[in-house]
Amino acid sequence: MSRPARRKVYPLSMRLPEADVAVIDRAAALRGRSRTDFVREAAVRAAEAALLENGPVRMSEKGFAEFLAAIAAPAEVAAEMVAALKRPAPWDSSPAKR
């Protein structure tokens, strides 16, 4: 006699205000996903981010010393970034500011 297959998915139930469901449905439709898929993906992504924020960072003594040296060193000017910040914004069409 065969054994029944073990369940590999678990139901999750939530009570949400209608406005929240409407926002979720709209976003899910924009992504071409079902509400369930959209909410599952968002929940897993948020959970992974929370775990990463609080997880320990392990490195060798040499790596830690290099890390400390890098954050203690004076900042270097990034010429490309300076040039980008000096350009007028694309939505600013005022000739006086160009």
Short overview:
The chain is mainly alpha-helical and 98 residues long.
**Number of helices, where a helix is a run of at least 4 consecutive DSSP H or I residues:** 4
Number of strands: 0
What's the domain count? 1
For the termini, the CA-CA separation is 81 Å
Summarize model confidence as the mean pLDDT.
90
Roughly what fraction of the amino acids lie in strands? under 5%
Summing up helix and strand content along with how strands pair, one would put the structural category as mainly alpha
Supply Rg.
25 Å
The proportion of residues forming helix, as a percent range, comes to 55-70%
Shape: flat
Topology as a string of helices (H) and strands (E): HHHH
Spans with pLDDT under 50 lasting ≥5 residues? none
Biggest sheet record:
none
Structural write-up:
With 98 residues, the protein is mostly helical. It has one domain (18-89). The chain has four helices and no strands. The chain has helices at 18-31, 35-54, 61-72, 79-86. The model has no long low-confidence stretch (mean pLDDT 90).
Task: Describe the secondary structure blueprint for this structure.
Blueprint: H1 18-31, H2 35-54, H3 61-72, H4 79-86
Helix pairs in contact: 1-2
